[in-house]
Amino acid sequence: MSQSIILASGSTIRAELLARAGVSFEVMTARVDEQSIKASLLAEGESPRNVADALAQTKAEKIGARVPGAFTIGCDQVLAFDGQIVSKPARLEEAKRQLQMLAGKQHQLHSAAVIVEGGKTVWRKVSDVTMTMRAISDDYLEAYLARNWPEVSHSCGAYQVEAEGSRLFSRIQGDYFAVLGLPLLEVLDYLALRGAIES
């Protein structure tokens, strides 16, 4: 009998990606102080890419310790602009400022996944995507946020490319699944290799 799979994330889109791929899994949200971990790692000079990886590992380890017999998938995504991390907007005004800042420029998304089994990290992947946002008029920005707030508050950068947010971009270089927050193909490949899913 194959081992159970746990998604240590409360992200709806990550759960949808796994479900649509026909994976049977359970969701157990890992409660971690992300801001404190980020601040500590950045103070130590870690890159945004490494911050994403560390957060994913922390979540996977926290849930994995409770269910050692399962494959526990921890995930995190970090948006980096000019070397700085841009967090999820807490307020509508903050979302507007973020989009104005990113408009017409490039930024990076670092999507990390870590799998823990038996209390140990057995697999990890950080997928890097370069996002090029088109210039956005103030009128469209106001209308976009009026239509899509508060849904976009769950997305770093205040956009959701799986919805109307796709109109904000002129180019995306990298894995589309990673943009949504999970390097899905690589996760599925590892789970198939270990016999956790049929292949």
Short summary:
By secondary structure, this protein is α/β, with parallel strands linked by helices. It contains 7 helices and 7 strands.
Outline the structure in words:
Strands 1, 2, 3, 4, 5, 6 and 7 form a seven-stranded mixed beta sheet that branches. The protein has seven helices and seven strands; from the N terminus they run E-H-E-H-H-E-E-H-E-E-H-E-H-H. The protein is an alpha/beta fold and 199 residues long. It has a single domain, classed as Maf protein, CATH 3.90.950. This is Nucleoside triphosphate pyrophosphatase. It is found in: Cytoplasm.
CATH class: Alpha Beta
Cα distance, first to last residue?
A: 15 Å
Taking pLDDT < 50 over at least 5 consecutive residues as the criterion, the unreliable ranges are: none
- Percent strand: 25-35%
Instruction: Tell me the overall shape.
Output: globular
Rounded to an integer in angstroms, the radius of gyration calculated over CA atoms is 17 Å
Summarize the main sheet.
7 strands, mixed
Which second-level CATH architecture applies? Answer: Alpha-Beta Complex
Q: What is the count of helical runs? A: 7
Q: What is the succession of H and E elements?
A: EHEHHEEHEEHEHH
Which percent bin holds the helix content? Answer: 25-40%
Total domain units: 1
How many beta-strand elements?
Answer: 7
What's the average pLDDT?
96
Structural class: alpha/beta
What fold name stands as the CATH topology?
Maf protein
